[in-house]
Amino acid sequence: MFKQKKLFTGLLLLLLVLVLVFPVLAVDFPLTVEDDLGYKITMDKKPERIISLAPSNTEILFALGLDEEIVGVTTYANYPEAALSKEKIGTIYEPNIEKIYSLKPDLVLAAGINKLESIERLKELGLKVAGFNPRTVNDIFITLKKIGKLTGKSDTAREIVTDMYIQMSEIQDLVDKVLKDKPRPKVFYEIWNDPLYTAGKGTFIDDVITLAGGINIGRKAHGAWPQYSMEKLLIENPDVYVSSPHSAPHQVTPESVKSRENFKNLKAIKNNRVYVIDTDIINRPSPRIIEGLKQFVKAIFPELAGEIDQIE
Length: 312
Prior knowledge:
Layout: H1 2-21, E1 31-34, E2 40-43, E3 50-52, H2 55-63, E4 70-72, H3 97-102, E5 107-111, H4 116-124, E6 129-132, H5 137-150, H6 154-179, E7 186-192, E8 197-198, H7 204-211, E9 215-216, H8 230-236, E10 240-243, H9 254-258, H10 267-270, E11 274-276, H11 279-283, H12 289-300, H13 305-309
Parallel strand pairs: 3-4, 3-5, 5-6, 7-9, 7-10, 10-11
Antiparallel strand pairs: 1-2, 7-8
Helix pairs in contact: 1-6, 5-6, 6-12
């Protein structure tokens, strides 16, 4: 009875938030949106030619139903499959400025992983560039809503965010229930193997680990994406070790992680708590971050796997 009441109250709060927030996201042009760089981008009309400088923004654009409007993406854009056939404008770190300009975009979407000088150069050429750098899962919701507004897709953005929010709430209920009887385990997330890099404080990945019920030991290191020493890893001694298939030049597997020199003394190795999660669903602040959250919950609390898989 209490759980039903809690769910009902949560849904009422969600509806209230949607009613208060989304009317501001009207699709009437011209409109202005402030990005995460502090710039105010004014769109006089719905953009018909959009370029994405990051795979996360590419995923958001496709989720919003803007397939036909996308005229350029980076070489790393691999999801959805339709992104592979889009015109390539260079890499995330070295976009081809001349190519971008020649495509005459109405809007260019940048991300925190893009170089600031590239963004500034595009602005100097007179292009409208909006940059987003979400640091929490909630920030990803906000980014989705802002991109939805800029592109005239506020209604679709609202539907996507609502679905993500509801799934996250259901996941949180399961995690909170487990945490009543168990302490939060220490978690290490490996972004790159040699040298060892992880996600630190102030990143959406750190937020995902916290929401999943873990303690991100990477948040004690300096910086958002810190290099992590083997000595520090042994001292912190994580209960759960999570990597991804592409955190090294060759495919990473739980077995390859367990066989690394000096790793045998880690608690996660001794207890067979090593997991590999698809890089793209956790390293990209896109709608798929909810799938990344589910994967982390299943790694931290395997007993919840069945119930997590039922959340859609």
